[in-house]
Amino acid sequence: MYNDGEFARWRRHPWHGLAPMADDADEGVVTAYIEMLPSDTVKYELDKNTGFLMVDRPQRTTATPPALYGFIPRTYCAEEVAKRCEHADVADGDPLDICVFSERLITRADIILQARVVGGIQMIDDGEADDKIIAVLDGDNIWGGVHDIADLPPIKTERLQHYFSTYKMIPGKDIEIRVDTVYGRDEALKVIEASRTDYNNHYGHLFDRKS
């Protein structure tokens, strides 16, 4: 479907056309494509076919994401990610989500940034593994020195857990979401590696020059 020449001529697809980390990145620093801001009351999501950011749905509740929200390029949540989640047999079939804390206000989405991974939340959404990696903006003047989840104030993680446990709520409809498992940097890096393996297993053919 894609080859290096096409990537060079046109804007790169945020999912398939960007590397998950810069060549010179420190260990644990990944590239994040940002879809949503903490001020967004509409859920924006990448349209996987075109690579453009689209309106997925207006948020039904007043909840807004407590951090920048997006995904890590060239990741995919499938069999290997599901193996890391004891209570899920499958994963959600999307790129791996990432939440990034920044001390300075970032006022637009559809951007990329470098994020230092510090942990994650093992979210199970209706039986599917839907992990949320937690990170801080690399080089941030307040959060840049954070290296593990224990270095963050607990309220930061609690707000993320509350958001993801409630943002799909509809009055009168039961939605089974679990966000009770929080893990540190080491496990987060293993989840990222599993998602990269899943991506290569399912989409590696996109980079086969013979395809």
From TrEMBL:
Keywords: Hydrolase, Magnesium, Metal-binding
Keyword Metal-binding in annotation: yes
UniProt cofactor(s): Mg(2+)
GO terms for MF: inorganic diphosphate phosphatase activity; magnesium ion binding
UniProt entry tagged with the keyword Hydrolase: yes
Superkingdom, natural source: Bacteria
EC number: 3.6.1.1
GO CC terms, sorted: cytoplasm
GO biological process terms held by the UniProt record: phosphate-containing compound metabolic process
Pfam families (alphabetical): Pyrophosphatase
Name of this chain's protein: inorganic diphosphatase
Taxon lineage: Bacteria, Pseudomonadati, Pseudomonadota, Gammaproteobacteria, Cellvibrionales
Encoding gene, per UniProt annotation: ppa
